[in-house]
Write a sequence for this structure.
């Protein structure tokens, strides 16, 4: 004669059976250290006793009814992790791409472009000023703007102007190259590009096109003299901010910005087709500068003055070593 199990008891028993069966297929709980120095496994305590109605719905051995091999959880693929702050740049954000967010934030790129707008606008204030030396200011300013847009075009984050980045990169790279001399033609082009930059900053797209025929090359974005000029200014700013704890506290945001610019330039000048990019000594100096700048950035974000000052010294040391080997 079949026994009748109360519905409530049956539902409870089924739920307990499901939990017990699942637990049997899962790996054992990890060891948990105790204060006594011993390592013990923490197990759930079984009930003191079962009533007969509930006990009747359990299998004596659940493994006799389960089919297939027990899963091997240890063979599951590991989940990737991001690079630790201050370490090497994080891996590619996508196939064939570099994770620029490990070096420079969207805010730094946007602020750098805004800062350079005043520099290039002042350089083209008049034809006489441009011819008298403003062309050199424009060369540096447009080169840095072109570099920022080149990074924006490849950046793995949500950066302003990404839709126009490649066009802007080529336009500002070309005018920066043409501003090596202060001719009426370079002046007219520089004036037009200042207007384009103002258009972008106002939130509109630019219509001009550089009509670049050859493949993109990093060395054509900004010449080495322009990048070295910006790097020298950044190095001076980093040294100034870390000269005292008071300056560090007052200008920590400036340090964050300048350190990321240094890190970006340190990465870019190692790209293929830049002069010396295949020279191990040169790459060692550039990598050391980039990594020290990242450390300065991370120290600034934590408010760690001593670490920031040490990293700033390392930035300067790498710059001086590179100039000693390659300048002149």
């Amino acid at each position: 004669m079949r026994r009748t199990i109360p519905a409530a008891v049956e539902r409870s028993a089924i739920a307990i059976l499901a939990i017990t069966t699942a637990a049997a297929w899962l790996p054992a709980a990890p060891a948990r250290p105790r204060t006594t120095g011993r390592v013990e496994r923490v197990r759930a305590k079984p009930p003191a006793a079962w009533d007969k109605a509930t006990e009747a719905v359990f299998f004596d051995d659940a493994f006799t009814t389960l089919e297939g091999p027990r899963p091997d959880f240890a063979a599951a693929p590991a989940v990737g992790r991001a690079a630790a702050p201050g370490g090497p740049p994080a891996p590619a954000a996508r196939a064939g791409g570099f994770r620029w967010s490990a070096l420079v934030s969207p805010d730094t790129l946007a602020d750098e472009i805004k800062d350079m707008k005043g520099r290039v606008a002042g350089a083209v204030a008049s034809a006489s000023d441009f011819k008298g030396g403003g062309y050199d200011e424009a060369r540096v300013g447009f080169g840095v703007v072109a570099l920022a847009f080149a990074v924006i075009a490849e950046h793995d984050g949500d950066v302003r102007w990404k839709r126009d980045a490649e066009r802007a990169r080529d336009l500002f790279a070309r005018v920066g190259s043409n501003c090596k001399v202060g001719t009426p033609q370079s002046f007219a082009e520089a004036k037009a590009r200042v207007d384009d930059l103002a258009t972008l900053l106002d939130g509109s797209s630019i219509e001009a096109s550089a009509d670049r025929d050859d493949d993109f090359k990093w060395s054509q974005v900004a010449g080495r003299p322009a990048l070295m000029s910006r790097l020298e200014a950044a190095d001076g700013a980093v040294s100034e901010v870390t000269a005292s704890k008071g300056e560090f506290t007052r200008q920590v945001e400036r340090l964050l910005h300048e350190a990321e610019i240094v890190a970006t330039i340190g990465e870019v000048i190692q790209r293929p087709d830049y002069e010396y990019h295949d020279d191990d000594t040169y790459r060692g100096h550039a990598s050391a500068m980039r990594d020290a700048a990242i450390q300065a950035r991370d120290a600034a974000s934590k408010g760690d003055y001593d670490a920031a000052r040490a990293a700033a010294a390392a930035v300067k040391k790498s710059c001086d070593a590179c100039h000693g080997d390659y300048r002149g």
The chain is about 55% helix and 0% strand.
